[in-house]
Amino acid sequence: MILHTLIDYETLRVIWWLLLGVLLIGFAVTDGFDLGTGALLPFVAKTDTERRVVINAVGPVWEGNQVWLILGGGAIFAAWPPLYAVSFSGFYLAMFAILFALILRPVAFKYRSKRENPTWRATWDWALFIGGFVPSLIFGVAVGNVLQGVPFRLENDLRIFYEGTTLIELLNPFALLCGLLSVSMLVMHGASWLMVKTSGPIADRARAFGSIAAVATIVLFALGGLWLWAGIDGYRITSAIVTDGPSNPLAKTVEQAGGAWFANYAAHPWMMAAPAFGFLGAALALILFRARREVTTLLSSALSVLGIISTVGVSMFPFILPSSIAPGASLTVWDASSSHLTLFIMLVVTGIFVPLIVAYTSWVYKVLWGKVDEEEIREGKGHAY
């Protein structure tokens, strides 16, 4: 018996769709509060010491949190090659902007406190703001464009052609709404992290901004859902679905239809748990911000992040990247994956290393748990950014 046949091809495809979601949610929940904290830095910290407190709230953990982004990108590259090819070529300029912002962040961490000049430090503080705000916005904009469909087509030999022209096209109204939702969601999450890691005026300001962000998350999530229902056509497969066949996106027919992104909820009501978690988590976070409950606020905001991202996945299933100009070329879970053997080998490797990453990350958070103390930073005790 060939070992990889122990799990059939259809099941492996679904497993890797789920794992991709887990990796993206892991990134949003962990590095998401780093991004949110960066976006909040100029607003919750008024003095140099307060800014150093905020920076040190994420400084020791941000590098480890970015592992989830690397894993997610690697999973797309290896498990869904056509998805990688279209998204990383079609969204090239957007990806470049994200990478520029993410590279700017560690440079700011390292260089900000090298000089005591106020202008020098203020410049790097705004660099940290850019490093938090820009990726938060563009990730949401990208999701908004995916929900509308991306302008690509496939030739008969499966060569991919992206027909988009400029970055400005990506900044359409619905995509910008999704971008603002992403910003508000991660600002809420960052504020909840600052409540856990800081005290005094910083925590009070974070609580106030977090409450506003929680309200914005609820409102924008609801507006996005209504807009998707009333004004944006979804996609549905109109031919027979072969779930265990070779990866050939052109072997099916697809049509655009109003409300198609909501069909899965009618067919599988349990999927309503995803948007329910999105609303419930943000509502609980709002209440707990006001109640000054620290850890439970962080967990509630994480639940909202999980629910909002999961909503996109379950709404689109089995699509992972629809085409707006050639719907039949849309990529789905069933026709855009790597081979059966490749998915199996990747699953074995993932089953070994992801638990190790989770265990190590958990240990790091345990060691670094506790509030950042202004007095220790002021006196220069230990390592501080």
Keywords for this entry:
single chain, 385 residues, mainly alpha, two-stranded antiparallel ribbon, 15 helices, 6 strands
Write a brief structural summary.
With 385 residues, this protein is mainly α. It has 15 helices and six strands.
Q: Can you walk me through this structure?
A:
With 385 residues, this protein is mainly alpha-helical. Helices cover 69% and strands 5% of the residues. It contains 15 helices and six strands. Helix 1 (9-44) crosses helix 13 (294-316). It is globular and about 65 Å long. The termini are far apart.
Q: Roughly what fraction of the amino acids lie in strands?
A: 5-15%
Outline, from the CA principal axes?
A: globular
Which structural class do the helices and strands define?
Answer: mainly alpha
Helix/strand order, N-terminal first: HHHHHHHEEHHHEEHHHEEHH
Count of DSSP strands = 6
Strand order of the largest sheet: 1-2
Distance between the termini: 56 Å
Mean pLDDT comes to 91
Total number of helices: 15
Percent range of helical residues: 55-70%
